[in-house]
Amino acid sequence: MRTQVAIIGAGPAGMCLALLLSEAGVDVAVVERRARDHVISRGRAGLLDQVTVGLLARLGADRRLRSGGLVHAGVALQFGEDRLRVDLKALTGGEVVIYSQRDVMGDLLEIAEARGVRVVFDALDAQPEEVGGDRPAVTWRGDGVGCRLDCDFIAGCDGSQGVSRASVPQPASFERAYDCAWVGILADAPSVHAELIYASHDRGFALASMRSRSRGRYYLQCGSQDRAEDWPDDRFWAELAARLGEEAAAGLVRGPVLEKSITAVRACVIEPMRHGRLFLVGDAAHITPPTGARGLNLAVSDAALLSRSLIAYYREGSAEDLDTYSARALDRVWAAMRLSTWMTELTHVLPGTDPLEQRLRRAEFDHLRHSTAAQAALAQMYVGAPLDEGAAPVASAATRADEADLHDIPGTTVFTGAQARKGYHLNQFCLSLMKPENRTRFRADERAYVDAWAMSEAQKRAILARDFNAAITEGANIYFLAKLFAADGQSFQQAAGAMTGLSAEDYARMMLSGGRSPQGARSIRGGH
After folding, report:
1. pTM exceeds cut of 0.85
2. Is the confidence at residue 522, as pLDDT, over 60?
3. Which CATH number does 397-512 carry?
4. What's the CATH fold of domain 5-73+95-174+266-345?
5. What pLDDT is recorded for position 396?
6. Side by side, which strands form the sheet with 153-156?
């Protein structure tokens, strides 16, 4: 087997990278050592920043997120009984969304399957090979048979305990193990508060979060050696009420505990995030303390950065972006690490904390409470700093006038940059019909197939009705639409005739006679 990019690991980083590359026409295959159901069930993260939400929307993996995600415009920090609400929306214009990693993975895998992305599950003993040379490969055992996937590059998205990290010889490793952990529960009862509460108490840290409107997720700082069974339900609820304080505890609903787990609190960064033709992505390169909710979000931003670099390589033949991937990704990693370690050390009572450190933590909280600038800095990091795309240039008056003229041609839609952006997913859908297996799926259930793409409802209606004029208005390019003509068994002449209200024969006669007359309407604005 051969592909251009082999991805080890089908978690959020691996699947986002696979979809981004596939969307750009880069051949990709994903190798995952666990079963599909395990991949979906293993995540507990649930807070998505604006970068992650935007990327999922771009991939068309946000349909359920838009209906089921909980949008939060603020977050609360509490020290003792004093609470500060940081207004994310007012300070940055951004928000975060509560939507579980399990649901994210279900959405990504569903989209990947609909688009024909190759994912191999239950791939035992997967191993990157020959990453220092020009012919890397991934090997594994499937159904007792040895398998090999030759490729140009390998993306290691298999986590901190995976084979990818172990394949980087003598990396620089920056680590910190905190002498504490989190014990967490998922309760079948609404959360105590509409937004997250990060609470610091003399007894330790507490976090009030949620998975949905009807299910709360709570965490308590505990000993680094504690086990879940050391925290029976009654003990957990009593300690949570004490640490959240009287005001919050008054609204605490103690529902049945559906899950209970222990989460380590640690930090680790591996540098560089590349070795030869192997690139590390997500947890394979870094682990941040869970306090900052950066793990999944940082993995997705890694995938976005690497996808750009690989796409540039295949489109332009330039390795420049690949050579700078590690440095660019690490800039974001260390910014995220700064946020997560700062929030951890502000809110946790760590073993050995002396009275001076305790008062300094209180002073830090008071500074945050009274400084709008400090709150804005926290809010920007929390909602996610935009990827380094740069701002779109502001159009000059002359450019705007030229664009207005383009829209003044009767009966003609000019395929401008704005139209290209509007119709991106529509045109990618058309392009997908070049593959026989995609045409088969489309013919079997057209609605289900178009729903797998991030098109507007107007674009989907145009496709399903074969209203090609409406599709062009919605951003379709005629050369991409030709793929749909062909899938329907129509010639370009037949489709063009239908778009002009003519039979194929009449359309042919008109074109052979010189086309439409140059006389007639020339301007919509001028009426002539």
Report:
1. no
2. no
3. 1.10.700.10
4. FAD/NAD(P)-binding domain (3.50.50)
5. 38
6. 118-120, 28-31, 5-8, 153-156, 278-280, 274-275
